[in-house]
Automatic annotation (TrEMBL), chain A:
Function text: Involved in the system for phosphate transport across the cytoplasmic membrane.
UniProt protein name: Phosphate-binding protein
Organism: Lactobacillus pasteurii DSM 23907 = CRBIP 24.76
GO molecular function: phosphate ion binding
Single Gene Ontology BP annotation: phosphate ion transport
Listed transmembrane segments: none
UniProtKB/TrEMBL annotation, chain B:
Domain spans labelled ABC transporter: 15-254
Any GO CC annotation of this UniProt entry: membrane
Pfam families recorded: ABC_tran
EC number: 3.6.3.27
Protein name: Phosphate import ATP-binding protein pstB 1 (Phosphate-transporting ATPase 1) (ABC phosphate transporter 1)
Organism expressing this protein natively: Lactobacillus pasteurii DSM 23907 = CRBIP 24.76
Keyword hit for Cell membrane: yes
SMART domains: AAA
Key words of the record: ATP-binding, Cell membrane, Hydrolase, Membrane, Nucleotide-binding, Phosphate transport, Translocase, Transport
From TrEMBL, chain C:
Protein name from the UniProt record: Phosphate transport system permease protein PstA
GO molecular function terms attached to this record: phosphate transmembrane transporter activity
Protein's cellular compartments: Cell membrane
Pfam families found in the cross-reference section: BPD_transp_1
Subcellular location, principal: membrane
TrEMBL record, chain D:
Entry membrane topology: Multi-pass membrane protein
Biological processes per GO annotation: phosphate ion transport
The organism's taxonomic lineage, starting at the top: Bacteria, Bacillati, Bacillota, Bacilli, Lactobacillales
Protein name: Phosphate transport system permease protein
Family matches, as SUPFAM superfamilies: MetI-like (SSF161098)
Function: Part of the binding-protein-dependent transport system for phosphate; probably responsible for the translocation of the substrate across the membrane.
TM region(s), chain numbering: 20-45, 87-110, 130-150, 162-185, 206-228, 278-297
Family of the protein in this entry: Belongs to the binding-protein-dependent transport system permease family. CysTW subfamily.
GO MF annotations in UniProt: phosphate transmembrane transporter activity
Keyword Zinc: no
Species this chain originates from: Lactobacillus pasteurii DSM 23907 = CRBIP 24.76
GO annotation, cellular component aspect: plasma membrane
Cross-referenced InterPro entries: MetI-like (IPR000515), MetI-like_sf (IPR035906), Phosphate_PstC (IPR011864), Phosphate_Transport_Permease (IPR051124)
Domain ABC transmembrane type-1: 87-297
Gene3D superfamilies: MetI-like
Amino acid sequence: MKKTKIALLLILLLVPFLGACSHNKNQLTIVGSTALQPLAEEAGYQYGIKHNVTINVQGGGTGTGLSQVSEKAVNIGNSDLFAQQKQGIDSKKLLDYKVAVVGIAVITNSTSGVKNVTMDQLRNIFAGKITNWKQVGGKDLPIVLIHRSKGSGTRFTFEQDVMHGQPVAGGQEQDSNGSVQKIVAATPGAISYLAFAYANKKNLVKLEIDGVKPTKANVTNNNWKIWSYEHMYLNKKANNQLAKKFINYIESPKIQTSIIEELGYISIHQMKVSKDINGKVHQLKGE
Amino acid sequence: MKETNIVIPSQEIALKTIDMTVNYGKVEALHKTNLSFPKNQISALIGASGSGKSTFLRSLNRMNDKVATVNGQIIFDGININNPKINVYELRKHIGMVFQMPNPFAKSIYDNITYALRYHGVKDKQKLDEIVETSLKKAALWDQVKDDLAKSALDLSGGQQQRLCIARAIALKPEILLLDEPTSALDPISTAKFEETIMELKENYTIIMVTHNMQQAARSSDYTAFFHLGKVYEFDQSSNIFQNPQVELTQNYVEGRFG
Amino acid sequence: MNAKRIDKIARYAIQTMVAIVALILLALLSYILINGLPNASIDFIFKPSEAIKAGGGIRDQLFNSIYLLVLSMVISLPLALGAGIYLAEFAPNNWLTRLVKTLIEILSSLPSIVVGLFIYLLVVIKWQVGFSILSGAIALTVFNLPLLTSSIQNAFEAVDHKQLEAGLALGMSPWKTIKGVILPITVPSVVMAIILASGRIFGEAAALIYTSGQSAPRLDYGNLNPFSPTSPLNVMRPAETLAVHIWKLNTEGLTADSDAVSAAASAVLIIVVLLFNLMAHYLGNKLERKLTGKK
Amino acid sequence: MKAKAKNQLLKASKATKENVIGQVITFLCATIIVTLTLAIIFFVASRGIRAFVVDHISLGQFLTGSEWNPGTKNAQGQPIAGSLPMIIGSFGVTLLAALIATPFSLAIGIYMTEYASKRMRRLIQPMIELFTGVPSVVYGFTGLMVIVPITRKLFGGTGFGILPGALVLFVMILPTITSMVVDTLQRIPVSFRQAALALGATKWQSIYLIVLRASIPGILTAIIFGMARAFGEALAVQMVIGNSPLLPTNLVSPTATLTSQLTSQIGNTIMNSVENDALWALALVLLLMSLVFNLVAKWIGKRGELK
């Protein structure tokens, strides 16, 4: 009797592993930028219900997204950057779809006592030339620089649009918007940069640059200079039939006005300007 | 006085060793020994500690296999059991053993006795109960435990545990029982009871017992072998060994001059 | 300062130190529970999570955590038991066995992110298993094995070798004696090892981010066919565990109430671990009593 | 002996087969675990060595340099990858955490095995296990919200650095060390203690002179296991260490550990790129350090063995 009881238990435990051989077809794996992840997840969930497709969205960062999609390990690679801007990625192999725009706000701890800075002052702060808030009209408090980690897309965009090639001073690096948010809110004199969606926490001050407020409207006409596209990359050689359908779904007006707005992104269709790989901005011919 | 005096008992021989030696690595712990143990008799092995008597005993049921190299022959019922082809597990059904420190399983009294039996194929519950009863009776433990066989063996006293080990061993109905200083960890009363038990067991088991206790050997054994520094000097009826030993070394030991 | 006084001082020093640790634990627990419990209502536990809107629950994440724990135990316990027994009973006492023991200790000191990436590159990418419970379970197995194996080995070595002798003398093979006689005696310490190991992997996040993934597709708990993607039993679906969910809420979380949900999730996670410990203790004692016949 | 029993003596029985199978299975389990460990070590080593062989990072500069910026090249064209800050960060955090945790876990261990009543022991045991249940993420954020502001108030600066890292790790490795210390102390036979007391020693003398002395190998292994755990911790430390790859000037200046640098950067680097390989070199250093930990523990354990 004892033997049969053990055998039964064993079978019961092994049943789930049988599922291991199933690898169903209509499934989409999306990996990459953590900034684009919430959008991809929410759109993926709604698309999944409508078309009975399972869409798995993972984070991992822009670097992982781009390298995995070039190796065809995943269907879509999310990235905050142009593939060309990332060393070691062969952009010719990839198809670029811009699905949204993300504005990056400059945030400081409420103790800084500063509401507005000029672009040059901002550049000098991050270059380490200005080290105390009183030099820009704030309280007498040392400035604490908090960067995003080196490979992050947000950091690349910020440094391209603000530093114009000048190196940034050393300082603390955090690898996620969440920790930047918490640390700037908690550390007196701290300054950093965050995507709009993350910047609207109560004890965070959103700096104006040259009198321009970090709003979506100011991004559409490039009054607010610090912004970038959110890209979804496909591998040219992969079977992208399902992936293309999903991207069209995201670029459809219905999604661009609903989820995109809710999550704090800016819709592609509202943009009056475009930005190329080296950050130059061009007027879009009357949309 | 002779150099050695090894007697071959006249009765039927249950087990005998031919030129058996035991080496721990390069050290020869036991020199060539030739002993023949009479059937259904108690043979005691005496000698100072380290004289090789336990080593000899443990080689009989191949308990020394991994630890030492045993050469020579051990003839049991006409077969040389000291060779690799022998199935050691089957062999130990025929040659049981009880150790110095009582080592009952951490199970109930009933399970202690039936566990090995069930493993060797005795499945029928009714038959098991019967064997448990007869073995415990033979080990003079039945009356004390018969109404609570499910009690854990670890709750028994030292003496009771040792008798449980006896019951467990005889439950397999071995032909030979090896006892390695079985009473050295017991109090005098349990020791005396233990000796009575093995005297009764003599009818259907050949018993070979290692002991430090000279009086025990004299009282309860029929034959006695005297070991000294890894060599058997004398093997004869216990009465001769203790009244007029032929070998001077035995005489010194028996009269307690050393050892 | 005679010995008597030193003895008294030592006793008080030890007791104060134990009290300090107890205080730290209570402070930590109360900090987590006070922040977490108010919004960890029952329906919070049985609601799916929300990406944007507030009021999301942790139903799928909690299920994934428990399911992953069970699966990784199903894989690692037999392996650890086998290896533990081999090292304690059969392995020859030579340099090779000592080398193996050191290797196992090294496995336990590997940082979780390194193990996570190893399984990610090998299992998720190269073997095309993809982000799934299976990959997560394999990653967690790597954490379970060293702790379980060394605890089991110690447990077997701690058992008095006379029990083995007793079994052999009755014509039982070493394997049968180990399985039938010695194993039951080690059950309590094996259960203890399982508790310690599961406590650790229940809170593991770093390794799972790259293996069992960060997305929790909505599950239909009625559907028990392990092949369909919405069934909870399917091992090929990505499964964000509770710990990963807490990590995601605090790093990339855009949900409106991410702080509240993460605090509540932490509280739930600790309570589940506490329940798990108590249940495992109870089970351990019962098993020991049944197997060794002690009343 | 009946004839049937006699020939059974000569042939293999269920027992022999079963025993062989049992040995083979357990041997296989042990080999699986060993191959798994070797595979991971080989994997980390091969990726780590790539940084030195393929990307020409100089080993000397790697171990002594204090600037970590693998993306850029120095004068000789070698990537600037000085991992000294991370090594010091990792060691600083681990040693400090172990330094704080050891006395406490010894105290609990001794209390549990020598002084505590059965009821107290039943209470403390789950308490210790509960510590292991708390996920490192929760430790990280509690550390960020509680410990960092306190260190900032007490010692100024940003509140990040080795001290908060060590405090968080102290709480995390306490259960690991304590449960192993308790295990070792319990293994010391009661007779040792009785012998000491019989000779008129006070309780503390019996503990200090006999019990602790006899369990030194176990205690050291426990500490090593705790340090190994602390050394490998990533998420919790990353929250409070400050993540800046700079040499720590004091206990509260932001720095980085091998693990925090690895976790925060790996996601954003591309496989086989210089930055990625440099991170794997860090992982290799991490691995070698934990190897050193184990060998030291073994050596001390052996020397302290009961003679």
